[in-house]
Design goal:
heterodimer; A: 267 residues; mainly alpha; 1% strand; elongated; B: 365 residues; alpha/beta; 9-stranded mixed sheet
């Protein structure tokens, strides 16, 4: 209830600013009014992007229009990069499991990751361009390099926090290394790992946006960068809200999944 | 006890005096009209830095009894501030003057036509690529800027208009375009501006196939002021226009003059963008400065300007830069010194005003 009030206050402030600015200048684009926003939403949801070569047939259905719209093509492009980097985080989590559990992995990797984590990934971009080119892989690499070390350190801590007795007990019950790692430890820390991932969604999106703003020809941040060039806030604001909604939705899905998979877990 | 009380009163007294003094000085300050000019790093705009450092600006502002502040911005941020009305005047190209403030309903006036790009912007290719083969290549550039305008003009002039829709453009931030292009030999084409052009041309396999010297007068660098500021009823806007124009032409006179003054002007202007004097001189070679107010005023009142602006406004409209709501190119109209208007007369948003350049020419500032 209280948060509803905060939402209302924000919207109210926005409307007040918008009305004031439109009073001074009826064509103001910095704080678009409802009509401008509606036309912005309409063109982003039902019209193809300028650079797209799709021309709608006269009797095209709404769905057909949507499939070729700006927001859909951009979401697909960004979503693909996001999902690929999400998949690439899985080996990072497994590496962290080993670092936390097996001393020789720890000796080999921990200090390196600890240092690597402090490197500001964005400043590595020129190097990423050399290694991965300017297409998809440099953007995905930026996300992974930016987020993976933090995840690894986080998961390592979780693994180390599992009581030592359990590991000893498992070994005495004739478990091998694999059993201990994947059937005892991993299952216990998995809900925490998912929670850690939830916290890292936003950094991932930040890195994705940074990558797309620097060099790309499609994607959500690409569109925002292009629209910024002529103050197309009527399109940018719906895009920002859409990205927020997407992140909220992914976060919610992970939370529900976590609760379903691990009803025993109390966070 | 007594002593601490006395100290306390002294402290209170001191505090009151200081606050009173501060508020007094603020009041005195508020009486003097203050104007802020935003500029960003570019060969033709760096002199604003020198103008401020050398005291030329202060001299002219004092003459008209106003205060002028000069502030450096990133280019995009300077335009944002101008549209948001945080600053009164701003340096920008003719294209951005049309698609940022004018298209956003901020009535703007071009006070000074400073220069035009005469080779500062260029289309660079690797390994002798030609225009008829560009459509199969990835082209790196900052989209929706003069770079894209230059590329389109180059394609049209080279008879490749039909290929325009097929170009594969990669929007690349200007802060990273040099390493992104240079570090990978599979990137063949890039469109950008100086000094980035010079950095890329250091690679011997890259050369320029088109530059802005082939479209003279189309990429103009202006000083734009909000019309409402210029037309302030108390006349302070006019004072500002006179002061900044006077300061500008004195600055340029020093810059294009000779001897120690010129060296000083070059040195400070170059330092504004962290360039060496040699590098800055090289950039100036491809910048056609309207050094004399007469040149600038003649250009602003001549027929050429209308032709060039027609090309620019059609480009802006075609690329949706005038905004989603603008259904006709005529809805963002441009007014010229001779009273003619491109577009609808009731929707004039950008005005070329040569009054102050002419006044400078006649020595009436």
């Amino acid at each position: 209830m209280l948060s509803c009030v905060l939402f209302a206050v924000c919207i109210g402030l926005y409307i007040q600013t918008s009305v004031k600015r439109h009073h001074e200048n009826s064509e103001d684009r910095v704080v678009p009014n409802a009509r401008q926003l509606m036309s912005g939403i309409h063109s982003s949801v039902l019209e193809p992007a300028e650079e797209s070569d799709y021309i709608a047939p006269d009797n095209a259905s709404k769905w057909e229009l949507f499939r070729h719209s700006m927001i859909w093509t951009d979401t697909v492009a960004s979503g693909r990069r996001f999902l690929i980097s999400l998949v690439l985080l899985v080996p990072a989590v497994l590496l962290a499991l080993h670092i936390g559990l097996f001393p020789y992995f720890g000796a080999g990797f921990l200090r390196f990751v600890l240092f690597f984590d402090k490197i500001v990934a964005l400043s590595l971009l020129p190097i990423l361009f050399i290694v991965f080119g300017i297409d998809e892989w440099s953007k995905i690499a930026l996300i992974v390099i930016g987020v993976a070390p933090t995840m690894i350190l986080d998961v390592t801590q979780m693994v180390k926090a599992v009581p030592r007795e359990q590991i000893v007990k498992a070994f005495t019950l004739d478990a091998n290394d694999f059993d201990v790692a994947y059937r005892v430890i991993f299952r216990q820390v998995l809900p925490q790992v998912i929670n850690s991932l939830r916290l890292n969604l936003k950094p991932m999106m930040l890195f994705l946006f940074a990558g797309e703003m620097i060099a790309s020809s499609d994607g959500l941040a690409y569109r925002i960068a292009i629209m910024r060039r002529h103050m197309g806030m009527d399109v940018i604001l719906p895009y920002v809200l859409w990205v927020a909604f997407l992140l909220f939705f992914i976060d919610l899905a992970l939370r529900v999944l976590n609760r379903r998979m691990h009803p025993w877990f109390q966070s | 006890m007594k002593i601490t009380m006395r100290r306390f009163f002294l402290a209170v007294l001191f505090f009151v005096l200081v606050t009173a003094g501060l508020s007094l000085s603020q009041e005195a300050y508020a009486e003097v009209p203050t104007f802020t000019v935003g500029w960003s790093v570019y060969a033709g705009w760096n002199p604003y830095f020198y103008m401020q450092k050398s005291g030329i600006l202060k001299k002219w502002a004092d003459k008209y009894g106003i205060v002028i502040k000069v502030q450096r911005f990133d280019y995009a941020a300077s335009l944002d501030s101008f549209v948001a009305k945080n600053i009164d005047a701003c340096t920008m190209t003719n294209m951005e003057a049309l698609d940022m403030p004018a298209a956003a309903g901020v009535d703007s006036t071009a006070l000074i036509v400073g220069d035009y790009s005469n080779g500062n912007d260029a289309v660079l290719v690797r390994n002798g690529l030609t225009f008829d083969r560009l459509s199969s290549q990835r082209i790196m550039l900052v989209q929706k800027t003069v770079s894209e305008y230059l590329l389109e003009r180059a394609m049209v002039i080279n008879g490749q208009q039909a290929q325009l829709p097929k170009l594969r453009l990669i929007n690349t931030s200007d802060s990273d375009i040099v390493p992104a292009f240079m570090n990978n030999a599979s990137n063949t084409t890039v469109v950008t501006w100086k000094p980035l052009v010079s950095q890329i041309l250091a690679d011997k396999s890259v050369h320029s196939i088109f530059d802005s010297s082939k479209i003279p007068g189309e990429i103009l660098d202006l000083l734009v002021v909000r019309s409402e500021v210029l037309n302030r009823p108390d006349g302070s806007g006019v004072k500002f226009a006179k002061a900044i124009t006077g300061a500008w032409y004195e600055t340029i006179q020093n810059l294009t003059g000779s001897g120690a003054t010129q060296m000083q002007a070059l040195k400070i202007s170059a330092s504004a963008s962290g360039d060496s004097v040699d590098s800055y001189r090289e950039q100036l070679k491809t910048t056609y400065l309207f050094a004399k107010p007469k040149d600038a005023a003649d250009f602003a009142t001549g027929p050429l300007l209308k032709q060039k602006m027609e090309l620019v406004r059609q480009f802006c409209f075609k690329h949706g830069l005038l905004g989603k709501d603008i259904k006709s190119v005529d809805d963002v109209a441009i007014a010229y010194p001779d009273g003619s208007v491109q577009g609808r007369k009731d929707r004039v948003r950008l005005r070329f005003n040569p009054t102050y350049m002419q006044a400078a020419q006649q020595g009436k500032l």
